Amino acid sequence: MATLLEQISQIGVVPVIKLDNPTRDAAALAKALCAGGVPVAEVTFRAAGAAEAIRLMKDACPEMIVGAGTVLTTEQVDAACEAGAQFIVTPGYDPELVAYCQQKQIIILPGCTTPTDYHAAYKAGLSVLKFFPAEQSGGMDKIKAMSAPFPMFKVMPTGGISLKNLESYVKNPIIAACGGSYMVTADLINGQKWDEITDLCRKSVEIVRQARQG
Ligand code: 3PG
Fold it and tell me: Which terminus has fewer CB within 10 Å in the chain: N or C?
């Protein structure tokens, strides 16, 4: 049985979600993602109902891997875990939050872009990092440069990723998966455009498949 991080890596893309109306949209969104071959989500705590959204998505699609994003406090870690979150993503590297998640035995993907961040993650014994904000921090070139002194890490770049540049990331074995909101934009979710979301997921999965074959 693959570990959770391996399963996320096999899927190859992680939708980064902000849900303003979880009661209305969470279940339908979870089904749309799964139908598109992307049974994973990072539900951000940028929206007040994030924990509720996590709970509703897991209820609708129990096989789906649901994590919490934009986690800034230990209280949010607790709320995410209680709601059923299977991984935690933080925008930056916070040693206190990393230790807290490790103590709770929940996977944490801290946002890292600098040698200092990577070194701290190395000391904490982590293996997969969020590289955020990816495009704005130097994209794949920077990820490759960071991999020279830190070849032990796989990364999940997020920030500025779309169908246009997904391939350029996922073809590199340093990349565990790419995060992005392009398949779950506010317009798509608020417009309840579930078929479009499923279609964008299918296209993403196909890009990942082809990039990894080639
Ligand atoms: C995140 O929090 O991971 C990013 O805001 C997602 O970035 P994107 O909207 O550019 O995909």
Answer: N
